[in-house]
């Protein structure tokens, strides 16, 4: 760095050229990656014959027809699917935040009999593929009469079954100074008051990260709704889209793209507003093993 | 004298919590502390027994039975496993498809992720913009909407063929309904979502001390040597982490194959992912016992793979601290 002054002009020129090449490469890759998405959005405003005749990103004639056609394209309207998805996703957020923060608090702050044993088991479930438990879970929910309700999708979230979030919160809680708990204990606070008055208020960043991921993953989930929801009135947006492909897929591409755009939109908005939180969330789980 | 007094005072403060729990009300209070602790863990404990351990044992039992959700499970010993091992061409096909997918998509995805992360880490302006652009596909890629889009891009009259026709005058086939190419469209969809390992690589690159590069360049090491001798070795723990996570994810791939092949795994089973086969056996054909055996075979494969990666890590992952 310091002896760069020996040949300033040559290295300067070379690094300018390299930079230009790098930027050109990055812009090309970005465009290639975004092109399908932009094309999907622009196609949703085009009439069908234009979708098939042009790959342009700007519609010749701007029309919202596809949105109204797609919205009512199935016997049940997409409004219903959006409400179902919203309800399931919001309940999942509440369930995950409540149950996972309780478990993470117990694992990081309380000294109880068998703690290390349960913690190791929790980490084990993190690695275990869900397929081993999928079928008996289905049989269980079927016997409880929960199939075709949202319960099989929501109840597991209230039982902290997304162990990833416990792990995320454990990492964060460990960084909160223990002196705070000890001082509160001396003042006569029990574990519940410490949890509500100290840990939760100091954990807003990790709770927000968990909430957003939880919402997006539930919103995008396809497998669980596919096996548990059979009646069109209880469909989520993902199931609605897939049914739409089946019923009209080859004939109404613009309607399909209009609904696809709407389904992706909430995730995209969350991404725009909470980008930093999401990226930091991913980076921390990757780094702190 | 005074020092001892202070020390006693300090230890009294330090153990105040424990003393409150153990000495004042003796074991009654200790028990209450244990119960309070377990009340925090209660939701997870219920979930663990009712939704994880119980079902895991139950599916192990079901895998030795013939069961269709209606009649009671009928014990057939190792019948299901024997059929998987010797007499199920679709199982072999599903294994072949899944392994091809894992072996192609994971290295490609990680190579892209690493190359872009290293480029972005060169101190370019607009880092946050590019990072956001590259991350977006992996955030929304799981949605059915994207699988639908992929179906249109690679259909016979889809976007790709429109481009090929007008740029090269080449009339492309329907990529998703040609057995030889259908799987590769799904591989491409997976590689397109390289954003989340890229973020983890970027975080890893940040942790490499800058002065190592300065020292190396003073010693005359060029960019390639710096990459091979500094960046790559110090990044191996992150590469390892990403490789394990992405491989487990790839074994579980489902949505894209399901949507692109309309749930069939076609054309002629060329996109019959393992999970898709499992789904068909369990929830379309209601061969619950057989599907349970298939599930356990997958679990064992993933476990073996994970164990092998951790064993191999000893030889190539560089833990310096």
UniProtKB/TrEMBL annotation, chain B:
Keyword rRNA processing appears in the UniProt entry: no
Membrane topology: Multi-pass membrane protein
UniProt keyword annotation of Protease present: no
Cited PROSITE patterns: ABC_TM1
UniProt xrefs under InterPro entries: ABC_transporter_permease, MetI-like, MetI-like_sf
Domain ABC transmembrane type-1: 95-309
Subcellular location: Cell membrane
Transmembrane segments: 41-64, 97-120, 132-153, 182-205, 226-245, 293-317
Pfam families according to UniProt: BPD_transp_1 (PF00528)
Keyword line: Cell membrane, Membrane, Transmembrane, Transmembrane helix, Transport
Family named by the database record: Belongs to the binding-protein-dependent transport system permease family.
Protein name: Sugar ABC transporter permease
Organism for this UniProt entry: Microvirga puerhi
């Amino acid at each position: 760095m310091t002896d760069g002054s020996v040949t300033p002009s040559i290295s300067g020129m070379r690094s300018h050229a390299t930079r230009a090449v790098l930027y050109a490469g990055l812009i090309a890759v970005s465009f290639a990656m975004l092109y399908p998405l932009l094309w999907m959005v622009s196609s949703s405003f085009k009439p069908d014959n234009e979708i098939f005749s042009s790959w342009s990103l700007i519609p010749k004639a701007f029309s919202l027809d596809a949105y109204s056609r797609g919205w009512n394209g199935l016997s049940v309207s997409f409004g219903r699917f959006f409400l179902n998805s919203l309800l399931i996703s919001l309940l999942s957020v509440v369930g995950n935040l409540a149950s996972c923060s309780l478990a993470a608090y117990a694992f990081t702050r309380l000294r109880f009999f068998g703690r290390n044993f349960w913690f190791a088991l929790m980490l084990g479930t993190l690695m275990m593929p869900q397929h081993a438990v999928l079928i008996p879970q289905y049989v269980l929910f079927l016997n409880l009469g929960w199939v075709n309700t949202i319960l099989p999708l929501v109840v597991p979230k209230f039982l902290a079954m997304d162990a990833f979030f416990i792990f995320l919160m454990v990492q964060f809680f460990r960084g909160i100074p223990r002196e705070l708990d000890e001082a509160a204990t001396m003042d006569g606070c029990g574990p519940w008051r410490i949890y509500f008055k100290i840990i939760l208020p100091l954990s807003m960043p990790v709770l927000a990260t968990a909430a957003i991921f939880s919402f997006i993953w539930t919103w995008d989930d396809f497998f669980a709704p596919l096996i548990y929801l059979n009646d069109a009135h209880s469909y989520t947006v993902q199931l609605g889209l897939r049914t739409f492909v089946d019923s009209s897929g080859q004939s109404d591409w613009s309607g399909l793209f209009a609904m696809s755009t709407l389904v992706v939109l909430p995730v995209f908005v969350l991404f725009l507003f909470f980008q930093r939180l999401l990226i930091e969330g991913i980076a921390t789980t990757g780094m702190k093993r | 004298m005074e020092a001892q007094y202070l020390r006693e005072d300090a230890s009294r403060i330090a153990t105040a919590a424990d003393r409150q729990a153990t000495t004042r009300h003796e074991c009654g209070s200790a028990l209450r502390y244990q119960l309070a602790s377990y009340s925090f863990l209660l939701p997870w404990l219920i979930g663990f027994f009712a939704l994880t351990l119980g079902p895991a044992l139950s599916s192990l039992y079901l895998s030795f039975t013939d069961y269709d959700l209606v009649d009671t499970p009928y014990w057939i010993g190792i019948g299901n496993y024997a059929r998987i091992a010797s007499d199920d061409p679709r199982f072999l096909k599903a294994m072949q498809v899944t392994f091809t997918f894992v072996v192609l998509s994971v290295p490609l995805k990680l190579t892209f992720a690493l190359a872009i992360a290293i480029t972005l880490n060169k101190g370019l302006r607009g880092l946050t913009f590019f990072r956001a652009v590259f991350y977006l596909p992996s955030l929304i890629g799981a949605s059915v909407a994207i699988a639908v889009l992929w179906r249109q891009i690679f259909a016979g009259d889809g976007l790709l063929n429109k481009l090929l026709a007008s740029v090269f005058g080449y009339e492309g086939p329907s990529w998703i309904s040609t057995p030889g190419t259908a799987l590769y469209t799904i591989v491409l969809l997976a590689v397109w979502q390289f954003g989340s390992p890229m973020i983890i690589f970027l975080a890893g690159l940040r942790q490499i001390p800058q002065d190592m590069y300065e020292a190396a360049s003073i010693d005359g090491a060029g960019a390639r040597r710096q990459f091979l001798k500094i960046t790559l070795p110090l990044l191996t723990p992150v590469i390892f982490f990403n490789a394990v996570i992405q491989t487990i994810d790839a074994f579980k791939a489902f949505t894209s194959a399901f949507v692109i092949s309309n749930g069939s795994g076609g054309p002629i089973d060329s996109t019959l992912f393992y999970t898709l086969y499992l789904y068909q056996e369990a929830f379309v054909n209601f061969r619950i016992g057989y599907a349970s055996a298939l599930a356990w075979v997958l679990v064992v494969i993933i476990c073996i793979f994970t164990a092998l990666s951790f064993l191999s890590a000893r030889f190539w992952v560089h833990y310096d601290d």
